[in-house]
Amino acid sequence: MPAIVLIGAQWGDEGKGKVTDLLGERVDYVVRYSGGNNAGHTVITPDGQKYALHLMPSGALSPDAMIVIGNGVVVDPKVLLEEIDGLAERGVDVSRLRISGDAHLIMPHHRALDRVVERYLGSSRIGTTGRGIGPAYGDKVARMGIRLQDLLDPGILRKKLELALREKNQVLFKVYNRKAIDVDETVEEYLRYAERLRPYIAETRVMLWDALDRGETVLLEGAQATMLDMDHGTYPFVTSSNPTAGGACVGAGIPPTAITKVIAVSKAYTTRVGSGPFPTELFDDNGQHLRKIGHEYGTTTGRERRTGWFDAVVARYACRLNGVTDLVITKLDVLTGMPKVPICVGYEINGERFDDMPMTQTDFHHATPIYEELDGWWEDITKARTEADLPENARRYIARIEELCGTKVSIVGVGPGREENVVRHPLLP
After folding, report:
1. Which of 17, 68, 22 is nearest to 40 (CA)?
2. Where in the sequence is the active site (predicted)?
3. Domain with 178 in it
4. Tens-place pLDDT, residues 233-264
5. How do strand 421-423 and strand 409-413 relate by DSSP bridges?
6. Per-residue model confidence as pLDDT tens digits over 212-229
């Protein structure tokens, strides 16, 4: 009964959607277990079509796999229905979608508060997408959340919304001088969503347990990444959920003993979106080169991504924290043509060397990277399909990453397309 977890090993945008799509034809279920429409996966199909997915699991593009949005996800129903309609218009079968009735809803007051609080924080802002994800998770923890199953009971929906808005409208109006949210309008809007979403709402835990009992393969797809984890990332510059491997159990209802493989995805360099410490960040021509050649702009927000050299301290931390069995390195082709390709192998903080993540956020913020420089390569690697096809210096670069992370590198991405990969070790038998 194999369950496989797929996570990001950096700050997100590593190419998890491509890996999910690569595995999608060989698994029976693809499950999204955390985050909301603040995430984004870009998938390019063999015929060159490009899909930007935000709430739907990337497995939606696989012809046979069931696709599941788990209880750990926060759902904006308007965004989800737009995504469903957009995929259906392009010929994608969305009837395979199931959504946990326990997934929490993003409501209008969540979006309003997210935007106004970020503006109020000014230079101290977190860098959220303004889509209401944090406030929705905040209400979930405060036991004031509204769940998808509540859409099926108009009386409960109204009662819960009235209770929530009793406080939220006071904050919006009296603290931030914003218009209060109307209960009647919101109930009417969300009941319209309910009619369309009703066929997709299910008890997904039992569905997944039964699938595992039958020996079927379940792929648990993380959004965001390890360094954005609420507990284990660069707090407070993190997301509001647990996108690490442990979060897969909570966010989908999968028992830990069912997980047989954890796949981590990392770029051959490092990027992040939003505020927060980033030791290897580049502000020179090399950083601009990585952004331009790597097309480093957010799938969801369109914001420029911050770019930097590969940080092996972060990657090793992610591998140990998640119990990674297989590492996937994407975008190796972006480094082609660079004379030197540095790897951060440690940090210097107040004259002391750290080979692991420092304990405090203050120390991490002041960390100076210690680099090891490797020779670059000039050959076009986009046609490489075996390790022997790669230039010697590219092979050395991957081997050094593998050594520093203590985890085997199984796949190397050499281009954006589904087939543009070097397979060193198969992810599935």
Report:
1. 17
2. 13 (proton acceptor), 41 (proton donor), 140
3. 104-199
4. 999 999 889 999 999 999 999 999 999 999 99
5. antiparallel
6. 999 999 999 988 899 999
